[in-house]
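User: I'm putting together a small comparison set for a docking exercise, and I want a reference complex before I start. The sequence is below, and the ligand is zinc ion. Could you produce the 3D structure with the ligand included, as structure tokens?
Assistant: Of course. I'll restate your input first, then give the structure tokens for the complex.
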Amino acid sequence: MKSIRVLLVLTFVSFFTTAFVRAEEAKKESGKAACCQKAEKAGEKCSHECCEAAAKGGKNCEKCGGKNEAKK
Ligand SMILES: [Zn+2]
Ligand SMILES: [Zn+2]
């Protein structure tokens, strides 16, 4: 019975870890410009020059409505 309990706990932990990671990803997604999100959903990269330039700097294109959180 012990192993079942361990398995349950592991499932529980991994479930919450996944949920947490997903929430973090959703946060990141929300900072992206709509055009970039659309392109990503289609499995592509946004072809806008402004977005490409922003992505190179690890940022979201603010011109197209993306948000860049200030780094602390
Ligand atoms: Zn874009
Ligand atoms: Zn852009």
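Residues 33, 48, 50-51, 61, 63-64 surround zinc ion (ligand 2) (CB under 6 Å). The helical segments are 2-30, 34-41, 49-56.
User: Thanks, that's exactly what I needed.
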